[in-house]
Amino acid sequence: MSGNASVDTTRHGGRVRSALRGFLIGLGGLAYAFVIWTAVFYAVQLSVGGMSGYGWVVLLLPSVVTAAVFAVVLVLTRRRSTGALVLVLLAGLGLSAVFLLNTFSYVIRNLAALTGS
């Protein structure tokens, strides 16, 4: 009888851990999606005046990099603890945000080259 109780407890603990991981990945995914949405929104806002091909590549690169960083985070933390998942999610989000801000800074300084004016 006690053997079944420990199996049920282990199964229940695994479900809770799995649900917590899913919740944390969902929250992290929302944060990464916000960075992607910001990059796409900024690209669309700047394209109203006309944008060269180089400008589109530069403005959409942060969204591609952010999606790639999120995929790498999921692969790296697949078999790690929940704490490692949170730390790597935050580190990747910080990396993506810095890349986005650096791209915005580049665009502000070189707007004439990106719009083809």
What does this protein look like?
With 117 residues, the chain is mainly alpha-helical. 87% of the residues lie in helices and 0% in strands. The protein is built from four helices and no strands. The chain has helices at residues 2-46, 53-76, 82-109, 111-115. The chain is elongated, with a radius of gyration of 20 Å. The model has no long low-confidence stretch (mean pLDDT 88).
List keywords for this structure.
mainly alpha
Task: Give a short summary of the structure.
By secondary structure, the protein is mostly helical. The protein has helices at residues 2-46, 53-76, 82-109, 111-115.
Q: Tell me about the biggest sheet?
A: none
For this structure, the quaternary state is: single chain
What is the N-to-C order of secondary-structure elements (H for helix, E for strand)?
HHHH
Please tell me the overall pLDDT: 88
User: How many strand segments?
Assistant: 0
Write the layout of secondary structure elements.
Elements: H1 2-46, H2 53-76, H3 82-109, H4 111-115
Helix pairs in contact: 1-2, 1-3, 2-3
